[in-house]
Design a protein that fits this description.
With 486 residues, the protein is mostly helical. The protein folds into three domains: 207 residues, no CATH class; 171 residues, no CATH class; 51 residues. The protein is built from 22 helices and three strands. The protein is globular. The relative contact order is 0.09. Bound molecules: zinc ion.
Length: 486
């Protein structure tokens, strides 16, 4: 018989409490897991290894090809340098599991293991870069309900690489740019005196159109191979996945369950309904630059023509198969990475809206409360620095739900004094008592910036340096780092 003395019982329950606290509050990731540091070696070797192959006899076409090729190398190494990607162990392991399953069942299609990059973007997308690299957005990981659905997108991107689509379209593009037809059209325009711009646009449009048509043809090929890879690997395919992906294009169309004011009331904050209604007078939205989340580069989009793709592949659906849900913890991790990323990219409305959607799902984790407070405080800080509108992340009314638009309008119109009061109230809310040390320290750093009107540049950088020194692996270094003395 195994029994415990009271002392070890106490110790065990303490350990249990600690592990529960940790389970509730997993770190986003380490600062060093961002791609600039984590993929430093890979980035260097890509720069060295990606030599443009000689494929065209014609010197001009080869020159164009090399320009496009080097542009792609620059794109990937630049994105790694900009920390567009993060290595998050659990999400990477989950997706690697899918890649491994597809590889093992289809050995003829894989010369080596593909390189997986996790893109911090919120957009529901993935893309193939060529040379065995695929990138999967956090928006997609958060969106996919089942492992099978996620597998389809991953198999699709792997198929683009297997079929050398990136390489082929670079070749096509080079041939096009060096072609006589293209040059003739440009020359004709340069010679003509009138309506140059209109004619130029017409020529460019024609070439773009041709390229899109080509792209669509590639999509069909990638789908067919993807479904084949999945079937060999015994991963169920359902053509309705395409329809779900179609609904993902507009990220913030999901309505909120409650009125906007109720979410603020939960923090004991009263908002004035008038703030959420667009005033006719005052600053015109025409003056702002809109961040249009739906306007992704079409050539990188995973899911154009979703209905067509559904129809084309519906007979291949594996009927009656049980699907495996993506673990809630994986989707939650992806969501936190997105919320943080939107926040630090000055898309405050998007960040806040995702927090409210979590509340609607019954997610009471206090990390979202902390981020709610940080977002409002940062808005006030931005207002004092005279760039409030730049941090709201304005989107057009027709691209979002009416609640999203209300929130955006409110963040735009709420008077400065009230914004200050609300930010201060959130700063002293009780949920901070449960925050991690680096979260608390981030808050005081943000408070110093925001509420200390006389804070000198020197003191800002001192505060930033102290934060970094105290928490050398905290993901929030990303916020403090720009304030360091350079
Ligand atoms: Zn594709």
């Amino acid at each position: 018989m195994f029994s415990l003395n009271p002392c070890s019982k106490l110790l065990l329950s303490l350990l249990f409490l600690i592990s529960v606290a940790q389970a509730q509050q997993p770190m986003l990731y380490k600062y060093q897991d961002l791609s600039k540091t984590y993929y430093k070696n890979q980035s260097d070797s890509i720069q060295k290894a990606w030599k443009c192959p000689s494929v065209f006899d014609d010197r001009e076409t080869q020159k164009k090809y090399k320009e496009i090729w080097d542009g792609r190398t620059k794109f990937i190494t630049g994105s790694l340098e900009d920390n567009d990607y993060v290595y998050e162990k659990e999400i990477a392991a989950y997706i690697d599991g899918i890649i491994d399953q597809l590889m093992k069942a289809n050995p003829a299609h894989f010369k080596s293991k593909p390189m997986l990059l996790l893109d911090r973007s919120s957009s529901v997308n993935a893309y193939a870069i060529g040379n065995g690299i695929i990138a999967v957005n956090m928006g997609l990981v958060n969106f996919c309900q089942t492992r099978e659905e996620l597998s389809l997108v991953i198999a699709h991107e792997l198929s683009h690489n297997i079929l050398s689509h990136a390489e082929n379209s670079m070749k096509d593009r080079a041939e096009l740019l060096a072609s006589d037809a293209y040059k003739d059209s440009l020359n004709a325009i340069l010679k003509s005196k009138y309506e140059r711009l209109t004619r130029l646009n017409k020529v460019l449009k024609n070439f773009t159109f041709n390229r899109r048509k080509h792209q669509r043809y590639h999509e069909g090929d990638a789908d067919s191979l993807a479904i084949q890879l999945m079937k060999k690997a015994n991963i169920a395919f359902d053509s309705r996945f395409f329809l779900r992906l179609d609904s993902a294009d507009m990220e913030y169309h999901t309505p909120l369950k409650l009125e906007l004011g109720k979410y603020f009331a939960a923090y004991d904050i009263t908002i004035d309904d008038a703030w959420t209604k667009k005033r006719t007078k005052g600053l015109s939205t025409r003056n702002y630059n809109f961040k249009d989340s739906t306007n992704n580069d079409d050539s990188l989009k995973t899911h154009p023509e979703c209905k067509e793709r559904y129809e084309r592949n519906k007979l291949l659906t594996d009927a009656g198969r049980t699907l495996t849900p993506v673990p809630a913890a994986i989707r939650e991790r992806a969501n936190r990475i997105i919320v943080w990323n939107l926040y630090r990219n000055d898309v405050i409305t998007g960040s806040l809206y995702r927090i409210l959607l979590e509340k609607d799902k019954g997610n009471n984790n206090n990390w979202y409360d902390l981020m709610f407070a940080n977002a409002i405080t940062s808005l006030y800080y931005a207002d004092r620095e005279l760039h409030r509108f730049g941090t709201i992340g304005m989107v057009k009314k027709e691209n979002v739900s009416s609640e999203y638009y209300q929130l955006q309008t409110m963040l735009e119109q709420i008077p400065r004094e009230q914004l200050e009061t609300i930010a201060k109230k959130l700063g002293s809310a009780s949920f901070w008592s449960k925050a991690q040390p680096d979260e608390k320290s981030l808050k005081s750093f943000l408070s110093t910036l925001t509420f200390d009107a006389d804070v000198s540049r020197q003191n800002r950088s001192k505060a930033a340096e102290e934060f970094i020194k105290a928490f050398p692996t905290s993901p929030y270094i990303e916020f403090a780092s720009p304030f360091e003395k350079k």
